[in-house]
Amino acid sequence: MPKDAPPNGDALSAVVPVGSRRRVSEMQAKLHRWAVADPGRRFDDLFNLVCDPATLIVAFDRVAGNRGARAPGVDGLTVADVEEQVGAPGFLDDLRASLKDGSFRPLPVRERVIPKPGGSGKVRRLGIPTVADRVVQAALKLVLEPIVEADFAPVSYGFRPNRRAQDAIAEIHHFGSHGYRWVLDADIEACFDRIDHAALMGRVRLRVKDKRVLLLVKAFLKAGVLTEHGDQQDTMTGTPQGGILSPLLANIALSVLDEHVMAPWKPGGTMSSEGKRAYRRRKGSPTWRLVRYADDFVVLVHGTRNDTEAVREQVGEVLAPMGLRLSPEKTHVRHLEEGIDFLGFHIQWRRKRGSDKWFVYTFIGDRPIRSLKAKVRALTHRQSQLSLEFVIRRLNQIMRGWSAYFKHAVAKDRFSALQNFVWWRLIRMLQARHHWNWRAMRRRFTTAHGRWLPITAADGTSLFNMAGVTVTRYRWRGNRIPNRWLPIPRAA
């Protein structure tokens, strides 16, 4: 299951001065309005906005508020170290001075290798920048994001303001229910590691004219990596995962795919209206729709298998100039009747039980369930020395987040089964720890009438009841997702 960021993943905390927050928000709104009004405009003099004290203050707050604030870069400093040794105001003054006089140089990112989910044995390489580099990347993102957002297609949902994984799943469910049942289930091979720097900078230059900002972005791309073995490697391609700017740069690179696949959907295109799409289908021509979440995407096709294979060839040709290619092993053409796995969900067109009607259903995938069970097993081992208070708090955190992500799927039975699994794991752990037999367990965890009580720690923390989570259909929003920087129109 991917880590689903909240809308934009950047909540401002109360420690930021209101004036700084308001100034940055107004700056972003202006940039976005100008970008929307003039699609061909190239923005100059953005460097002063990056170096603005208000921008750096908000950027530092976002870096300090991330969970990665505790992870040091190659200089060994965390955000807490910076605040303790220098103080945030002095640190930002020095950083701004180095940016203004041109002496700022990004340091190599510290590599950290983590296993990929699913037990495949493969690893994901993360790059952890220094605190100073993270703040500058956050400042660049504050300035560049409202500009490039004006050009991003509505079919892209990953790491964008007010968009989330459930929107992408709802999009697949909606179009799958309206005849788009052939699917190109695609996987880009090592996307973040292979993006061509020259092609990416060419995409950035379409909107950014300020050479100082362009040089700063390029410097981060070329900063290099300090491996876990202590070797320094140059980064000739790719944008390291783990940096604040990396998801935005990846979206800029992959927007070339959005533009190509969705070009017929633009006003005046051959698929721009339902009438035109129906006309194409009557003539035997296919229609298609892209749904992308970062580097994970599917193309839904209203046509035949051969039509979907043709789309696959087009997608490969579009990605090649960006230095990317589809993974032959993981890219497949499927019918929705077989089902596809996307962002942890299993989406399938199947017959409704007890009827002859067919619908598109969204289930929880097998991999997230295996991952959840593995975490529960690790916490509830019979020989575990962890306190019951810690175990229950950690289980509650995991189950609350997991159920909140999947509560829009057909999940009621799964939630009940998993709740039963967690309950039995805790019961067996307590039996082994305290040498209680079944009679002792019932005496402690049932009422006088024989009803089971929630498992509760000494501090009053009770086990979260996942089976009680309300399961609801996520509403498909389509093109009605609100824009962060444009005012919401008032109803007449």
TrEMBL record:
<dbReference type="InterPro" id="IPR000477">
    <property type="entry name" value="RT_dom"/>
</dbReference>
<dbReference type="GO" id="GO:0003964">
    <property type="term" value="F:RNA-directed DNA polymerase activity"/>
</dbReference>
<dbReference type="InterPro" id="IPR013597">
    <property type="entry name" value="Mat_intron_G2"/>
</dbReference>
<keyword id="KW-0808">Transferase</keyword>
<dbReference type="Pfam" id="PF00078">
    <property type="entry name" value="RVT_1"/>
</dbReference>
<dbReference type="InterPro" id="IPR051083">
    <property type="entry name" value="GrpII_Intron_Splice-Mob/Def"/>
</dbReference>
<dbReference type="InterPro" id="IPR030931">
    <property type="entry name" value="Group_II_RT_mat"/>
</dbReference>
<dbReference type="InterPro" id="IPR043502">
    <property type="entry name" value="DNA/RNA_pol_sf"/>
</dbReference>
<keyword id="KW-0695">RNA-directed DNA polymerase</keyword>
<protein>
    <submittedName>
        <fullName>Group II intron reverse transcriptase/maturase</fullName>
        <ecNumber>2.7.7.49</ecNumber>
    </submittedName>
</protein>
<dbReference type="Pfam" id="PF08388">
    <property type="entry name" value="GIIM"/>
</dbReference>
<feature type="domain" description="Reverse transcriptase">
    <location>
        <begin position="95"/>
        <end position="347"/>
    </location>
</feature>
<keyword id="KW-0548">Nucleotidyltransferase</keyword>
